[in-house]
């Protein structure tokens, strides 16, 4: 498996990145860890005449926990997330999810930016970021703009990012309450058959907020507002969970693949969500 | 054909410099350009881990990295861990506990295990299985690999204690 | 020369002979990254070859334009069938008596089929050249189901049609349809049908043993180097049978066999994948002859999974009859075997369905009949024995499922049903209804030991409680107890009925003792991880009394090794291991004469004792083997030639029949279909145990491959013949995380006809493991009305079973 030939760039700053992007348009692609892109290039399913390696661009590898938000640089790896005690204290769901991505070697290379930016419906971080109501910072020649994760994904590999923009950071409002990232997969290294991110708060035994997003059950991650709403104001009894699951099922649109047919995926999505809700509630 | 790049690597403590096409994958650089044939090619899609090397302190699947990405970095392969006169405890333990059969996954497996033990010197069986899940073995069923790593951990901790 | 060790015990230990867990001598190089696998070979001026492959499963090739590819800098040649035809190499014979296209000759029959071979200075140019070969295809109707193939008007193999649409016989007799390959049967048809028709109880079941793949971590490949000066071709490659490859290459290329040297270097796992001859080998040889340079061809993983050597793909229908008390009276089995586009199964010539006729299993079944129909479809060729003797996994899966299905029909405990039908110890050698003579066994002892160890009754009680809890809504997990008792048939095999391409399936060992008492032994087999260099030296150590550490074992180079049929079907220990022991005994016989001469007594007055010959009744008078070796080269002994060497070609009188008892305890999440293996107990009886450490390692590995096959590993196609499982994302190879710890155990029932009583073990755990894992899944659902569901039991199929049984409310 040999990729087609390409030109390789390793700019030292964002201006350099943007200049190359501007020059080559969609013939150019930025690469972080490369663990999604390189296999596609080797299989010749992705042709990238101009490859821009972001590793030398400074300021993309920081994790900052502020009073009301967390900022994660695009080049922060899954391994960095797992290792950051500060981050885990602030938003433990990130570590729980990161541990369920791929395998140890891939987690050293796989980045948050790459995971959320390329629009692969199999990736775990997009749904997670939607659940956490994260905002993605995009930098282009016209400057910076922020796009909410919940508005970012349009279709498989199609996102709100323009070809000439680079996703540089993810900002997450400091979450509170209980959390869970629940994923069913066939083996280590597989994408989810179904995965659910849940972040939930309660007061006096009543759910005060709930955010729910699902992974690999549509051509984009699915933030199910209705599924969250179904829990708010309830005591998280069986009926509430049932109606949340029903709402979620209304929002997803899985397709058949080697993991199984649609009916199975829907069923598992429901089971996984229920378990995620119950686990999150137990931690709320 | 694209422009060749000037690439510098430190491999197993030795400086290497060469010109290569950007699309040259690191595994081919090691195996074909530098004749370091310990790391192997198993799946080519970053699933099997036979090509695992250590780059600047991270376990990396070298089939999924271009040599150009590694420019300026330090790489350790199985050949850099120990030789006939100074075997690494993991190399000893894999032999002692029958942690290999055909040997094809072994260089990647041992290289990954060095990093695992560096990060977690006293892993439980579960932690070993989870930490080694990026390396596929078709022969051993993993049981003796786990045993080998446990034994190496004990050995390494003992010699660390003795040194202190 | 005096011994450094004194007591007999010390002398035995010093040999590191049979029965001890000698550490492997192979490991030093492998643990230091110094193995030498085929892709490690680098020769001056070496070129790289790679294939243009068909994207279609069935298509006519209208044209191939190589001009643009040849323009790529570094591309030297692009071979097509038209280039090979003048050499007669555009097709090649298969091991199954069929022929196979080396490069597409006018049409393609499966996705990924080899269409053109691009030869270039490096792998980058080859890859770029492949992209630019323009092939014009005309798509043809695709058939991926063998039952449809037998009804279809579409002719897959026009090359096999006779004049005027007639249907000439195939390699194995008459063909019923243009997509039919052979019918092969064993046993007594009418008597079996009669017994079943008149039986108290009959259970019937249809089951599909899905297509899968051996998928060793190292793919297949070779380096061909034609030395035009010396006229000698050297071929290094991933060959499980290097001598057979040499003979095949000679037969199809016309190069005399003495001018061909085939070398198997270290092999990164085989499991059957590396038995066959592939188009890549032929094209590399041709390319080397054409260019005069060495040519390397190495599959990538996708090539490997999609084109070389699938396994299984058997549609099996069984009928089993019994008395009301559960005594089995008859067994009927029909198989529709999907062989893909060419019949490239790797079986002994007279056995187109391998040893499927071992499907009466471990049971005393008086009447049986087996019929197998081979069929062409638009899928990749192969049909190899994936970690098993020829089709034995299929046979054992079949009978171990039929036993379970019968137990359900009889409403009887499946362990008890097995027990009352086992062949009894005193019945061995046992003549089975389908033709084989089982050499030895003690099934009851093994079974009782297994059930006692796992507390079978306790497990059943726990399972019953679990069913109650499930029904009461207290749990959503069911518990399955998987049982399996298998009898393998390995060690092919007696030359009178086993050959491959006409080559008798003996094996060989040649030993040279060096003057200072060390030795080299060469064999016709080739290790792919089994540790031959370690274990064969142990056999010899015990036979000739020199330490295993002083014995080098060498395999895989046809210029030096004696002719042998290679390593697969667990034949190394039963056949080459026997040859080793026999050659060792020849050494010993000569040593005895030398010892007697040196001790100045009659030949019959000395006897062998561990590492020496002693004078009978006077143990203080002895000559060690080391002393004898020295004398053999340095002393003129009347009537005895100098030197100490021996060779043995061993034609086994019978197969060997390892057996074992396995139990798996599994918990199944009914809602997600996720199984969790709680416990796995494996008792193996492989006869005499040469190296317990290696045996255990083989068992762990074989069980893990069994787990994979049973729980998810498949080669799947869509209706258009597209292979859906071409990478390790979708082709299930479990990681350490998905694999449990195994408990191993053993009994020892030596083979009576094998010189050291050994039976072979490498494949037993796979053969016995697959039905055990499968039975565990199916057993979990038995209380809810399940009789049979097909493998692989991946999450969604387990879920589907639960769903169809109404367990999702």
UniProtKB/TrEMBL annotation, chain A:
**FAD-binding PCMH-type domain ranges (all copies):** 1-177
Q: Name one GO molecular function term.
A: oxidoreductase activity
Q: Which domain of life is it from?
A: Bacteria
Coiled-coil parts of chain: none
Provide the alphabetized UniProt keywords: FAD, Flavoprotein, Oxidoreductase
A Pfam family matched in the record: FAD_binding_5
* EC numbers, comma separated: 1.2.99.2
Query: Which PANTHER family does the UniProt record give?
Result: XANTHINE DEHYDROGENASE SUBUNIT C-RELATED
Output this protein's name: Carbon monoxide dehydrogenase medium chain
From which source organism is this entry? Shimia thalassica
UniProtKB/TrEMBL annotation, chain B:
Report which residue ranges the record marks as coiled coil: none
Give the keywords, sorted. Answer: 2Fe-2S, Iron, Iron-sulfur, Metal-binding, Oxidoreductase
Per the UniProt entry, the Enzyme Commission number(s) are: 1.2.99.2
2Fe-2S ferredoxin-type domain residues are 5-81
What GO MF terms are annotated? Answer: 2 iron, 2 sulfur cluster binding; metal ion binding; oxidoreductase activity
Record-given protein name: Carbon monoxide dehydrogenase small chain
What is the species listed in this Swiss-Prot or TrEMBL entry?
Shimia thalassica
Give the organism's phylogenetic lineage.
Bacteria, Pseudomonadati, Pseudomonadota, Alphaproteobacteria, Rhodobacterales
Automatic annotation (TrEMBL), chain C:
SMART domains referenced in this protein's UniProt entry, alphabetically: Ald_Xan_dh_C
EC primary class:
oxidoreductase
Encoding gene (name): coxL
Q: What is its EC number?
A: 1.2.5.3
For activity, the cofactor(s) needed are: Cu(+); Mo-molybdopterin cytosine dinucleotide
Does the record carry Metal-binding as a key word?
yes
Record's Gene3D superfamilies? Aldehyde oxidase/xanthine dehydrogenase, a/b hammerhead, Aldehyde oxidase/xanthine dehydrogenase, molybdopterin binding domain
| Stored InterPro entries | Ald_Oxase/Xan_DH_a/b, Ald_Oxase/Xan_DH_a/b_sf, Ald_Oxase/xanthine_DH-like, AldOxase/xan_DH_MoCoBD1, AldOxase/xan_DH_MoCoBD2, AldOxase/xan_DH_Mopterin-bd_sf, CO_Mo_DH_lsu
What name appears for this protein in its UniProt entry? Carbon monoxide dehydrogenase large chain
Q: Which Pfam families match?
A: Ald_Xan_dh_C, MoCoBD_1, MoCoBD_2
Reaction(s) this enzyme catalyzes, per UniProt? CO + a quinone + H2O = a quinol + CO2
GO MF annotation: an example: molybdenum ion binding
User: What UniProt keywords apply to this chain's record, in alphabetical order?
Assistant: Copper, Metal-binding, Molybdenum, Oxidoreductase
């Amino acid at each position: 498996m040999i990729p087609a030939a390409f030109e390789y760039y390793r700019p030292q700053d964002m201006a350099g990145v943007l200049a190359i992007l501007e020059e080559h348009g969609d013939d150019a692609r930025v690469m972080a860890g490369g663990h999604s892109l390189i296999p596609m290039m080797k299989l010749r399913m992705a042709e990238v005449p101009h490859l821009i390696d972001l590793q030398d661009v400074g300021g993309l590898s920081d994790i900052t926990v502020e009073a009301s938000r967390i900022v994660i640089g695009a080049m922060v790896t899954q391994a960095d997330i797992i290792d950051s005690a500060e981050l885990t204290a602030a938003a433990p769901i990130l570590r729980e999810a990161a541990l369920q991505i791929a395998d140890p070697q891939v987690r050293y290379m796989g980045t948050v930016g790459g995971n959320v930016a390329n629009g692969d419906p199999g990736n775990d971080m997009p749904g997670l970021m939607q659940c956490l109501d994260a905002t993605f910072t995009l930098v282009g020649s016209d400057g910076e703009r922020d796009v909410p994760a919940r508005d970012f994904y349009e279709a498989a590999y199609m996102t709100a990012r323009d070809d000439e923009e680079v996703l540089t950071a993810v900002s997450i409002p400091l979450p509170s309450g209980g959390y869970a990232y629940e994923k069913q997969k066939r083996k280590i290294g597989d994408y989810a058959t179904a995965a659910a991110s849940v972040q939930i708060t309660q007061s006096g035994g009543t759910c005060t907020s709930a955010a729910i997003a699902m992974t690999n059950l549509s051509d984009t991650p699915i933030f199910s507002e209705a599924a969250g709403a179904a829990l708010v104001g309830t005591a998280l009894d069986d009926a509430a969970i049932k109606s949340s699951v029903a709402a979620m099922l209304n929002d997803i649109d899985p397709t058949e693949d080697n993991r199984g047919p649609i009916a199975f995926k829907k069923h598992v999505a429901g089971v996984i969500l229920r378990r995620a809700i119950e686990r999150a509630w137990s931690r709320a | 054909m694209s422009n060749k790049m000037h690439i510098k690597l430190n491999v197993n403590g030795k400086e290497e410099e060469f010109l290569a096409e950007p699309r040259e994958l690191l595994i081919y650089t090691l195996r074909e350009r530098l004749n370091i044939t310990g790391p192997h090619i198993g799946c080519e899609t970053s699933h099997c881990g036979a090509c695992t090397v250590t780059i600047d302190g991270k376990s990396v699947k070298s089939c999924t990295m271009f040599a150009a990405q590694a420019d300026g970095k330090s790489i350790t392969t199985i050949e850099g861990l120990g030789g006939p006169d100074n075997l690494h405890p993991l190399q000893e333990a894999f032999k002692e506990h029958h942690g290999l059969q055909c040997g094809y996954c072994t260089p990647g497996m041992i290289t990954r295990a060095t990093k695992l033990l560096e990060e977690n010197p006293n892993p439980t069986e579960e932690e070993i299985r989870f930490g080694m899940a990026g390396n596929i073995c078709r022969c051993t069923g993993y049981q003796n690999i786990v045993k080998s790593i446990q034994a190496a951990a004990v050995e390494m901790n003992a010699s660390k204690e003795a040194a202190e | 020369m005096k011994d450094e060790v004194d007591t007999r015990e010390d002398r035995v230990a010093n040999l590191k002979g049979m029965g001890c867990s000698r550490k492997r001598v192979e490991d030093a190089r492998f643990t230091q990254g110094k193995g030498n696998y085929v892709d490690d070979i680098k020769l001056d001026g070496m070129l790289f070859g790679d294939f243009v492959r068909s994207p279609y499963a069935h298509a006519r090739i209208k044209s191939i334009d190589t001009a643009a590819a040849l323009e790529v800098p570094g591309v030297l040649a692009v071979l097509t069938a038209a280039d090979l035809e003048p050499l007669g190499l555009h097709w090649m014979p298969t091991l199954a008596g069929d022929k196979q296209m080396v490069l597409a000759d006018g049409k393609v029959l499966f996705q990924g089929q080899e269409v053109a071979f691009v030869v270039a200075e490096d792998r980058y140019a080859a890859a770029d050249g492949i992209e630019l070969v323009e092939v014009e295809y005309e798509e043809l109707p695709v058939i991926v189901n063998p039952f449809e193939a037998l009804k279809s008007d579409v002719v897959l193999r026009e090359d096999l049609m006779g004049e005027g649409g007639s249907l000439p016989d195939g390699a194995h007799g008459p063909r019923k349809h243009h997509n039919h390959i052979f019918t092969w049967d064993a046993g007594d048809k009418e008597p079996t049908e009669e017994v079943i028709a008149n039986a108290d109880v009959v259970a019937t079941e249809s089951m599909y043993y899905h297509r899968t793949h051996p998928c060793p971590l190292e793919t297949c490949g070779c380096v061909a180097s034609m030395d035009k000066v010396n006229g000698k071709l050297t071929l290094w490659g991933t060959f499980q049978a290097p001598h057979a490859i040499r003979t095949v290459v000679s037969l199809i290329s016309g190069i005399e066999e003495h001018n061909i040297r085939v070398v198997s270097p270290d092999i990164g796992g085989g499991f059957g994948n590396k038995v066959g001859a592939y188009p890549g080998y032929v094209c590399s040889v041709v390319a080397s002859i054409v260019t005069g340079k060495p040519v390397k061809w190495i599959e990538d993983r996708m090539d490997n999974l999609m084109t070389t050597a699938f396994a299984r793909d058997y549609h099996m229908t069984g009928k089993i009859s019994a008395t009301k008390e559960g005594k089995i009276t008859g067994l009927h089995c029909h198989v529709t075997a999907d062989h893909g586009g060419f019949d490239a199964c790797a079986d002994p010539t007279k056995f187109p369905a391998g040893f499927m006729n071992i499907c009466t299993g471990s049971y005393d079944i008086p009447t049986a009949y087996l019929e197998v129909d081979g069929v062409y479809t638009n899928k990749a060729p192969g049909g190899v024995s994936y970690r098993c003797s020829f089709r034995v996994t299929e046979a054992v899966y079949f009978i171990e499922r039929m036993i379970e299905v019968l137990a359900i029909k009889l409403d009887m405990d499946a362990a008890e049903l097995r027990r009352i039908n086992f062949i009894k110890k005193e019945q061995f050698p046992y003549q089975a209804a389908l033709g084989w003579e089982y050499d030895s066994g003690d099934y009851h002892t093994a079974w009782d030991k297994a059930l006692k160890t796992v507390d079978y009754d306790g497990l059943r009680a726990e399972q019953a409680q679990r069913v109650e809890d499930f029904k009461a809504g207290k749990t959503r997990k069911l518990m399955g107890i998987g049982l399996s008792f298998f009898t393998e048939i390995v060690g092919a095999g007696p030359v009178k009925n086993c050959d491959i391409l006409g080559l008798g399936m003996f094996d060989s060992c040649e030993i040279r003792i060096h003057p200072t008492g060390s030795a080299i032994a060469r064999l016709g087999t080739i290790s792919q991880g089994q540790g031959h260099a370690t274990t064969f030296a142990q056999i010899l150590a015990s036979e000739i009394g020199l330490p295993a550490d002083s014995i080098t074992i060498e395999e895989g180079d046809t210029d030096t090794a004696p002719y042998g049929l290679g390593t697969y079907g667990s034949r190394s220990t039963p056949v080459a291991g026997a040859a080793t022991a026999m050659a060792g005994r020849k050494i010993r016989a000569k040593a005895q004469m030398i010892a007697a001469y040196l001790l100045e007594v009659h030949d019959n007055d000395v006897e062998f004792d561990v590492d020496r010959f002693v004078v009978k009744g006077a143990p203080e008078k002895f000559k060690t083997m080391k002393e004898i070796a020295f004398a053999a080269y340095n002393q003129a002994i009347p009537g005895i030639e100098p030197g100490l060497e021996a060779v043995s070609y061993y034609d086994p009188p019978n197969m060997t029949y390892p057996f074992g008892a396995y139990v798996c305890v599994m918990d199944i999440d009914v809602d997600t279909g996720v199984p969790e293996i709680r416990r796995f107990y494996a008792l193996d009886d492989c006869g005499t145990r040469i190296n317990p450490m290696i045996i255990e390692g083989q068992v762990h590995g074989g069980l893990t491959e069994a787990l994979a096959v049973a729980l998810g590993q498949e080669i799947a196609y869509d209706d258009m013949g597209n292979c859906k499982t071409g990478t390790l994302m979708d082709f299930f190879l479990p990681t350490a995380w998905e694999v449990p710890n195994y408990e191993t155990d053993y009994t020892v029932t030596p083979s009576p006809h094998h010189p050291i009583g050994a039976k072979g073990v490498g494949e037993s755990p796979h053969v016995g493991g697959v039905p055990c894992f499968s039975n565990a899944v199916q057993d979990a659902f038995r209380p809810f009305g399940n009789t049979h569901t097909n493998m692989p039991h991946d999450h969604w199929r387990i879920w589907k079973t639960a769903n169809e049984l109404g367990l999702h409310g």
